[in-house]
Design goal:
The complex is a heterodimer of chains A (118) and B (500). Chain A has 118 residues and is an all-alpha fold. Chain A is built from 4 helices and no strands. Chain A has a single domain, classed as Helix Hairpins, CATH 1.10.287. In chain A, helix 1 runs antiparallel to helix 2 and helix 2 runs antiparallel to helix 3. The longest helix of chain A has 32 residues. Classes of the chains: A mainly alpha (118), B mainly alpha (500). Chains A and B meet through helix 2, helix 3 and helix 4 of A and helix 6 and helix 7 of B.
Chain lengths: 118, 500
């Protein structure tokens, strides 16, 4: 299970970086999303993924003695997912507006700020 | 010592923003509420600052969860100083925005978002939990996206694409760093991290994690070679927005550097060398970039970079004297960079342009305003006894004591080019004969006196603060020495947070 997740994470990071380096705005957007998901899986991996070991202390014990799956990374992922959802939706709207104004998908045409009274 | 006043600077701006949302589309109410909210914020931050200056470090545990487990807010002197500076800038920008930001932008919610931004900044400075710091960073960037794009002009949107992409990328790097840090230590509390990180045996992983933080914070604070988004976006929004961005946003990244590299990753030789290289190259590229630009705000954007290099170079030296210098420099820099962008906005009102070739003759027409701006420009160049001069003494001293002549050369080049630029701006904008069409482009002269006062007062206020920093340098040096002491020896910070 862990090995599979590690490979998935690596693929997501690699694909994200590759897509961000492209000149197309849609690919840039997809790259951002994939990179964010790669990070989420990385956090998930750090919390001991084991089956059937909830972090609940049994009635007669004082502390956890066995291996348990750490709940904190899962809470962190939830936060990170919500945040990246907000950022992604803003990014989609912004890129759509930019596309409506400059009528092209090519990031190399975004040079008005550079040319305007240098 | 546990105290709930720490969270007050955050709450004030939160409530102001919520009240503002209730007055949607009422422009006059927005202007008044925003100024009142920022004033309250300033009063509370002054109280918080004086309490921490004369007393122990304050902490607050969210929901009463004890320190390493819950989220903790820490008000040590460094945090509260930054909160105080943020509040000063916020008040000035609130007042300036009342006339400096167009009605259309206010109608679409400029003021609530502005207060959400200040809320995020205060939260980032006060939190003692590294994941919480990430969350505050996200509050800051999402607000800054809106402020940058509000108004929807073509250059604004194009600048925002670059700004947005690199900031999201920086957050991803930062989050990856946090994830690995949690994986190797099992804690997120900064004070707890600073102890547990020492127990990690594989130092290579620790150093690699540090690189994630260098890249994440490096993009956010616009350091060489990660700064290109800054000069291509900071000159597009209204001047009031550019003032907050220029003064405060990059400084949050620097704050992250200062916290992480004094508490968690104590720099070894390699990281010191890396930071020194980044610092000096930032100074050089920033100052050379500023020389070739002809637009006021573009020059100021590059100067932001240039002067951040001093701070990172100071951090790389990692001695207490260097810390005093860099903290003093940050105190001076936050106020003055915000003021520069406000001044650029006022100059645009006076002449209808920010292009050096189309400006001129302001000294002849408005001598009082020009003299006020001269104070700011001279302080930036570091002419004694104004505020830019004092921290450089400390940075020089620290450079000599560590025999780091590379850094000293960097400071000399940076300072000299800043001086040259100030002379250039003074002669081009203020002394040169005005263009013939100048009077027809003057939007300032026909304004009623009250509106004029609202534009000039914030600049005078910040110039006054700059003057006070320069003339009352002894007090600032005392504050900076105390902060430097905290940075060099973090034991009081750790003990205050992890109190049993």
């Amino acid at each position: 299970m862990e090995l599979l997740l590690v490979i998935t994470m690596g693929c997501l990071y690699a694909a994200g970086v590759y897509l961000i380096l492209k000149r197309s705005m849609v690919r840039l957007l997809l790259g951002i999303i994939l990179l964010g998901n790669g990070t989420n899986i990385l956090i998930f991996l750090l919390g001991n993924i084991v089956k059937g070991h909830p972090p609940v202390i049994a009635g007669e014990l004082q502390s956890l003695t066995d291996v348990y799956s750490d709940p904190i990374p899962q809470a962190l992922i939830l936060t990170a997912i919500v945040i990246s959802f907000g950022l992604t939706s803003f990014a989609i709207v912004l890129l759509k507006r930019v596309y409506a104004i400059i009528q092209t998908d090519d990031l190399d045409n975004l040079n008005t700020p550079e040319e305007e009274d240098i | 010592m546990i105290s709930h006043i720490i969270i007050a600077p955050v709450l004030v701006h939160l409530f102001t923003a919520i009240v503002l949302l209730a007055f949607w589309e009422k422009i006059l109410a927005h202007r008044i509420i925003s100024i009142v909210g920022s004033l309250l914020g300033l009063i509370i931050s002054v109280r918080l600052f004086t309490r921490v200056l004369n007393g122990p470090i304050l902490t607050m545990n969210a929901a009463n969860w004890d320190a390493p487990f819950g989220i903790v807010f820490v008000g040590d002197l460094m945090s509260t100083t930054f909160v105080l500076l943020t509040s000063i800038v916020a008040l000035a920008v609130s007042i300036y925005s009342a006339t400096g930001v167009s009605k259309g932008r206010i109608r679409y919610g400029y003021f609530p978002i502005f207060h959400f931004l200040i809320l995020g900044l205060n939260g980032a400075f006060l939190t003692g939990d590294i994941f919480n710091l990430y969350v505050w960073f996200e509050v800051i960037i999402i607000s800054s996206f809106v402020l940058l794009t509000i108004g929807g002009r073509k250059p604004q949107l194009e600048g925002a694409v670059k700004y947005m992409t690199l900031n999201i990328l920086a957050s991803t790097f930062f989050l990856t760093g946090i994830a690995i840090l949690y994986g190797i230590t099992g804690t997120l509390n900064i004070a707890d991290l600073s102890q547990k990180i020492l127990l990690v045996e594989k130092r290579a992983i620790v150093n690699m994690t540090a690189m994630f933080f260098v890249i994440g914070f490096g993009i956010k604070s616009a350091l060489f070679p990660l700064y290109f988004w800054l000069p291509s976006s900071y000159h597009t929004p209204p001047s009031a927005v550019a003032a907050v961005f220029g003064g405060l946003l990059t400084k949050v990244g620097i704050y992250g550097f200062l916290r992480v590299f004094t508490l968690i990753f104590i720099p070894d030789d390699f990281i010191q060398l890396l930071l020194m290289g980044i610092g000096v190259m930032t100074i050089i590229t920033g100052s050379f970039g500023a020389v070739i630009k002809n637009n006021l705000r573009r020059i100021f954007s590059y100067l932001i970079l240039c002067h951040l290099g001093f701070v990172i170079g100071g951090l790389a030296l990692f001695t207490e004297i260097a810390f005093i210098g860099l903290i003093f420099y940050l105190i001076h820099d936050i106020i003055i960079k915000s003021n520069l962008f406000l001044m650029a906005g006022l100059i645009r009102q006076l002449r209808g342009s920010m292009d050096l070739s189309r400006l001129g003759g302001i000294y002849g027409q408005y001598p009082k305003i020009s003299l006020m701006m001269a104070v700011v420009l001279f302080s930036l160049a570091g002419i004694p006894p104004l505020s830019g001069f004092w921290p450089k003494i400390y940075l020089f001293d620290a450079g000599y004591q560590s025999s780091n002549y590379f850094f000293i050369c960097g400071i000399i080049i940076g300072s000299f080019i800043t001086l040259y630029l100030m002379a250039k701006i003074w002669s081009e904008v203020f002394w040169k004969d005005p263009k013939e069409e100048a009077n027809s482009l003057d939007h300032f002269a026909p304004m009623p006196l009250f509106r004029k006062a609202l534009l000039v007062f914030p600049i005078a206020f910040l110039a006054g603060v700059t003057l006070m920093i320069g003339l009352n340098a002894e007090f600032i040096i005392q504050v900076a020495s105390k902060i430097a002491g905290e940075m060099a020896d973090p034991t009081p910070y750790i003990e205050a947070v992890l109190v049993k």
